[in-house]
Amino acid sequence: MGKIFGYARVSTKDQNLDLQIDALKKAGAQVIYTEKSSGKNKNRNELEALLKAVSSGDTIVVYKLDRISRSTKHLIELTEYFEQEVIQFISLQDNIDTKSSMGRFFFRVMASIAELERDIIVERTQAGLSAARARGRLGGRKATPKSKVDDAIRLYRSNAGYSLREITEKTGVSKSVLYRHLSKENK
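^ that's the sequence the OP posted. Answer follows.
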């Protein structure tokens, strides 16, 4: 009997891994790899580390299919790798366990449905943005008020020795917005 490895991922730094980690522990995961990275990001260091750590007879457990894969193609590649290396795969929320032939079949079907769902969300978002643009509205975040940016630049350039964290906390201006405005001024 091999080891049980868990893999948990959230898309943004603000999201919390606790729900996934608790479920993985309950499923018997002895080692859990965690990541805060977009699913579309190809460079997922913890997933790579997990794939290097597992060996024949081990099991990988995830909370949900979309936590481990970027696309149906990626999921199928992972499945083929798992089959080739005799690694079992369990997705808790999707009720998939590749120890059975039905589990392997269902795994592939669910992967296709998950990708379809993501594609539909993208299409809806694009359609909504197009409709908003047709009405003269732009998508995305609201621009940071110029007065706040000016305050942040003033603090940045002052000799008071404010750190970037202090500046962003005092003004509410993010580092990226501050740097963007500073670089515009330096051109």
